[in-house]
UniProtKB/TrEMBL annotation:
<dbReference type="InterPro" id="IPR040442">
    <property type="entry name" value="Pyrv_kinase-like_dom_sf"/>
</dbReference>
<dbReference type="GO" id="GO:0106099">
    <property type="term" value="F:2-keto-3-deoxy-L-rhamnonate aldolase activity"/>
</dbReference>
<dbReference type="Pfam" id="PF03328">
    <property type="entry name" value="HpcH_HpaI"/>
</dbReference>
<keyword id="KW-0456">Lyase</keyword>
<dbReference type="GO" id="GO:0046872">
    <property type="term" value="F:metal ion binding"/>
</dbReference>
<protein>
    <submittedName>
        <fullName>2-keto-3-deoxy-L-rhamnonate aldolase</fullName>
        <ecNumber>4.1.2.53</ecNumber>
    </submittedName>
</protein>
<feature type="domain" description="HpcH/HpaI aldolase/citrate lyase">
    <location>
        <begin position="29"/>
        <end position="232"/>
    </location>
</feature>
<dbReference type="GO" id="GO:0005737">
    <property type="term" value="C:cytoplasm"/>
</dbReference>
<dbReference type="InterPro" id="IPR005000">
    <property type="entry name" value="Aldolase/citrate-lyase_domain"/>
</dbReference>
<dbReference type="InterPro" id="IPR015813">
    <property type="entry name" value="Pyrv/PenolPyrv_kinase-like_dom"/>
</dbReference>
<keyword id="KW-0479">Metal-binding</keyword>
<comment type="similarity">
    <text>Belongs to the HpcH/HpaI aldolase family.</text>
</comment>
<dbReference type="InterPro" id="IPR050251">
    <property type="entry name" value="HpcH-HpaI_aldolase"/>
</dbReference>
């Protein structure tokens, strides 16, 4: 899985990497827009979306053909859901609400084939693998799969080091919205309680020799030293850009009108 291998290497070197979390609208042409924008990866959300599995598998295949990593956020962490997500050909997964290392044991077993796990090779998104043997699966998929467990609750914070240090964890990750609400400071991004938790996750990643995945305002996060950044949801980015254009246009029109009147 070359795209996953290259992204993992880039992240581990501390290079700045950016990508969107796609929730609302997913279509093949989005791949062109993301590539032209210069992004490094894409995460397709199946937790809060209506994307069907065939479309997600198509996007994973397009990414592989374009040497562009497509990760998936599954709706749940049970064995069947994780195994099915891997069937789609994902380069990795953003895992929602991870609270214990035992949950990651299940994820590991659903990714790896015996004797390393309990999964069987296969899936509609994995036909590119030359021979569907255990050795091929290990070499072509297992070794490169990217796993990002999101800390989204106090219970997750309580088990932070065990989650981040787990053998299957590639990078620490945060679910800022859910975590802030679980801490009682919903969406208060400057609240000391939230900032302390965020910094603790980052410190745990550093202790484990890993990087932290963070979602938010790209320039601000880069200024804070984050390197593995999700810049947001494409529909939200589009709405924000359109709003800014409208405001600027109305402001320029108003200035032109005033200049014309004064003349």
């Amino acid at each position: 899985m070359q795209p996953a291998k290259e992204l993992k290497a880039k992240v581990n070197r501390g290079e700045l990497t950016t990508g969107p979390l796609v929730i609302d609208h997913l279509w093949p042409g989005l791949m062109d827009h993301v590539l032209r924008a210069g992004m490094d990866y894409m995460i397709v959300c199946m937790e809060h979306s209506c994307h069907n599995t065939e479309r997600v598998a198509e996007m994973c295949a397009l990414g592989r053909l374009a040497s562009f990593p497509v990760l998936v956020r599954p709706p749940k962490l049970d064995f069947s859901t994780i195994s099915r997500t891997m069937d789609l050909g994902a380069c990795g997964m953003l895992l929602p609400t991870v609270e214990t290392p035992e949950q990651l044991d299940v994820v590991r077993d659903a990714i790896r084939v015996p004797p390393r796990g309990r999964r069987r090779p296969g899936g509609m998104g994995n036909r590119w693998i030359k021979d569907m043997t255990a050795a091929d699966w290990e070499n072509d998929v297992e070794q490169d799969t990217i796993i990002l467990p999101q800390i989204e609750s106090q219970k997750g914070m309580d088990n932070l080091d065990a989650i981040v240090g787990h053998e299957v964890t590639t990078c620490a990750a945060i679910g800022p919205y859910d975590l802030s609400h679980d801490l009682g400071v919903g969406a208060q991004w400057d609240n000391p309680k939230f900032l302390t938790a965020r910094n603790e996750i980052r410190a745990a990643a550093k202790r484990a020799g890993k990087v932290m995945w963070m979602i938010g305002d790209g320039p601000s996060l880069a200024n804070e030293g984050f390197t593995f950044i999700c810049v947001g949801e494409p529909s939200v980015i589009l709405e924000s850009a359109m709003t800014q254009i409208v405001k600027q246009t109305r402001g320029e029109a108003s200035e032109e009108s005033l200049r014309g009147y004064n003349a």
